[in-house]
Amino acid sequence: MSSFDRLLAWVEDEPGVVGVVLSGSRGRGLGVAESDWDSYLIVEGTDDGIEDSAREVAGDDVDLSVIASDEFRSFAAPGTDREWDAYALVHATVVVDRLDGQIKALADAKETLPAGAAVAATRRALDACINALVRSAKGRRDERRDEATLDAAEGVAPFLEVMFASQGRIRPYNRYLCWELERHPLSESGVIGDEILRLVAGVLQDTDGATREMFRLMERRARDVGIHDIVTAWDEGSLSLIR
Known about the structure:
Elements: H1 3-12, E1 17-22, H2 24-27, E2 37-43, H3 48-58, E3 62-68, H4 69-72, E4 93-97, H5 102-109, H6 115-141, H7 145-154, H8 156-165, H9 177-183, H10 193-204, H11 210-224, H12 229-232, H13 236-242
Parallel strand pairs: 2-3
Antiparallel strand pairs: 1-2, 1-4
Helix pairs in contact: 6-7, 6-8, 6-11, 6-13, 10-11
């Protein structure tokens, strides 16, 4: 019996636990023998006794987060100090749900961003990526290729943020990027996952033209979602370097 199975057996006799979510590689069907059991325990109230008991039963190979049920509704929401944790619940497996489906519904909702948060995230990421690509282009112009490559690499994360947030979706952790694009394509962008991965690889491998392709793709996406003003706010001299 695994440590996670022991935890589930304990949960059966613990009415204070209303939900268990299995995250990480195991929760997405990608686990291997060495994988941790990344788990979220949803409890009624804030009974420290439940948390202490759960951790004692779970052991060291269960990475356990204990969250009160009323806090789970806003857990990892945009603008909070745990927003980086949102993807942990995206496509995770809800193992126990004693709230008539509410745990699963709340976990599933983490995949999408509220409209306002999606637009704000896309705008920030677009500007950040342009900044990185402009710095990279200036580095190449000044024959500082190594520094230029590093600057271009810094543009990869905001580029991916643009592609996902512009569809109102949470950007996946790097570990799950290929899996996400294959299983849950960015269909509305008109771009297949292979193209996104090719551009990312091209930038990281310093392939000629990759940064220009990346910018063209983002600019097209910016027009599609009505935030091209972020692009036009940049001076033409800088834009000409990355076009």
